[in-house]
């Protein structure tokens, strides 16, 4: 019916940043990229939208207007408005926050922008090199932020025990049909061999499994790493939480396994939360990707 409100669609992943292209005025091109978050379930073609921004116009007002245009274009193509905006660059968080607030949209600072990162990689390989003013060759890398100190999990979020686990890519592809109280599923890397082993961990808590899953869901879990003899969960934009302290040999083997996953499984990892090893139901399950930071 004409004028009817569309139901909200999935979250949008957003990147508002400069690109390796010099405009005629000698300034770098800025660009807004927006795409929908995709999960494991079969879904329509993801919404993708881009708009160039003059360097002199980089501000929250321009961004707000561009997002409004994107929402209208999405509606014209049959996509609902976003439930939330996910922003993966900490340096742009304040500007995106102001634009989102002006539109009544919730902003989620998150590294779980896997579809956006892959699209940006595609553009860096096939789109930008074809543009006039493209700056070929190695560019000076941005300064790497100092990683915050990893903090111990709050007492209420600690399980009774945990274990390493491995699932095949074929098994993970079926996760969309599992009963999960707090799901965090994302599309698997394209072309992934179904037999590829994917590393992960299982957290167990007989009394607090559901509460722990709810708490973890709000963290936006991004990836696992082994650092200084600790198993660390990276979450949000820069949060780091200590899941366990590891003996030296176990830390070495775990670090090697995660590194191999980056090579063989596109950085894929997982976290499962269960009441116990004997209980098959999942209170929480997240697919993670070890992708570069923005």
From TrEMBL:
Positions of the RNA-binding protein Tab2-like N-terminal domain: 12-123
Name of the featured protein: Tab2/Atab2 family RNA-binding protein
UniProt-listed Pfam families: Tab2-like_C, Tab2-like_N
Superkingdom of origin: Bacteria
Domain RNA-binding protein Tab2/Atab2 C-terminal: start-end pairs: 147-289
InterPro entries: Tab2-like (IPR009472), Tab2-like_C (IPR046761), Tab2-like_N (IPR046760)
């Amino acid at each position: 019916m004409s004028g009817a409100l569309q139901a909200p669609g999935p979250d949008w992943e957003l990147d508002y940043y400069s690109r390796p292209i010099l405009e005629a005025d000698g300034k770098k091109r800025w660009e807004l990229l927006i795409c929908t978050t995709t999960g494991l379930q079969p879904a329509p073609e993801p919404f993708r939208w881009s708009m160039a921004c003059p360097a002199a116009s980089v501000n929250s007002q321009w961004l707000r207007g561009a997002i409004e245009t994107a929402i209208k274009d999405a509606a014209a193509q049959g996509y609902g408005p976003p439930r939330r905006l996910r922003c993966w660059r900490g340096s742009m968080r304040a500007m995106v926050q102001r634009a989102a607030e002006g539109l009544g949209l919730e902003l989620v600072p998150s590294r779980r922008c896997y579809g956006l990162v892959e699209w940006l990689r595609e553009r860096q390989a096939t789109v930008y090199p074809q543009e006039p003013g493209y700056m070929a060759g190695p560019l000076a890398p941005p300064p790497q932020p100092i990683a915050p100190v990893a903090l111990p999990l709050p007492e209420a979020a600690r399980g009774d025990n945990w274990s390493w686990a491995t699932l095949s890519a074929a098994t993970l592809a079926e996760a969309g049909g599992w009963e999960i109280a707090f799901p965090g599923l994302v599309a698997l890397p394209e072309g992934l061999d179904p037999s590829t082993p994917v590393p992960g961990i299982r957290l167990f808590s007989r009394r607090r499994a559901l509460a722990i899953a709810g708490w973890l869901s709000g963290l936006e879990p991004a990836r696992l790493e082994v650092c200084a003899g600790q198993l660390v969960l990276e979450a949000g934009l820069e949060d780091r939480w200590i899941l366990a302290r590891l003996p030296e040999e176990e830390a070495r083997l775990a670090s090697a396994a995660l590194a191999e996953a980056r090579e063989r499984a596109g950085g894929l990892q997982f976290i499962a939360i269960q009441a116990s090893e004997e209980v098959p139901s999942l209170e929480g399950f997240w697919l993670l990707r070890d992708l570069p930071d923005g």
